[in-house]
Amino acid sequence: MSIAYLRQFKVAGYAVFDFAASFIGVFLLSPFLSGLARRAGWQVPRMNWVYMTLPLGIAAHLASGNITPMTRDFIDPHGHYLVKAVVIGFFILGLRNIRRNNK
Question: Which of 4, 21, 29, 46 has the fewest CB atoms in 10 Å of its CB?
Answer without folding.
Answer: 4
